[in-house]
Amino acid sequence: MGVELSYKPPVYDITAPDLYIPLMAFGTYLVLAGFILGIDGRFSPEALGVQLTNGILCWLFQVLLLEATLIHTSGDGDLRLLDVVAYGGCTFAAVSIGHPASEYCVHIFILCSHIVGMLLYGNVLHQDHENNFDC
Predict the structure, then answer these.
(1) What is the membrane topology listed in the Swiss-Prot or TrEMBL record (predicted)?
(2) Does residue 117 sit in helix, strand or coil?
(3) pLDDT tens digit string along 5-21?
(4) Is the separation of the CB atoms in 113 and 62 below 8 Å?
(5) Residue 18 vs residues 50, 63, 103, 122: alpha-carbon distances, Å
(6) Residues of 77-114 as b/e, b for ≥16 C-beta within 10 angstroms?
(7) What is the 8-class DSSP label of residue 118?
(8) What per-residue confidence (pLDDT) applies to 107?
């Protein structure tokens, strides 16, 4: 059970997460939320601020949920915080697609964040550690 995780530098690891996609997906989520609020006639800067706050709080909640789940399953707590933030933020892409179609996007958001986070962490956890590049 004493498997030690070792990370390769991002230049050598094609599965290394970055924050570009999560941040762009979060921006798309905010633009779509403002557009939908405008269509419904409920748009105001305060309403968009509420959407921003809710999005950030949901992102924080899913990062905490992913951290707790991954620490519980892996046991050693050797996790990079920015990796978990990037994995959790990828669900904004799914929410941006599902947001116009659903009034209950928070439930979809939580479910997708858990699924995407576990799949992506499983991909990193189970990659072949014997081919690490030493710098």
Answers:
(1) Multi-pass membrane protein
(2) helix
(3) 677 777 787 777 788 88
(4) yes
(5) 26, 15, 29, 17
(6) eebeeebbbbbbbbbbbbbbbebeeeeebeebbbebbb
(7) H
(8) 66
Give me the amino acid identity at 64.
Answer: L
The model scores a pTM over 0.85 = no
For residue 63, give both structure tokens: 């990062």
Type of residue numbered 97? I
Which residue is associated with the tokens 């230049």? 11
Please, are residues 3 and 73 in contact by the beta-carbon 8 Å criterion?
Answer: no
Segments making up each domain of the chain, as ranges:
20-125
DSSP element (H, E) containing 59: helix 45-74
b/e sequence 58-73, b meaning 16+ C-beta within 10 Å? bbeebbebbbeebeee
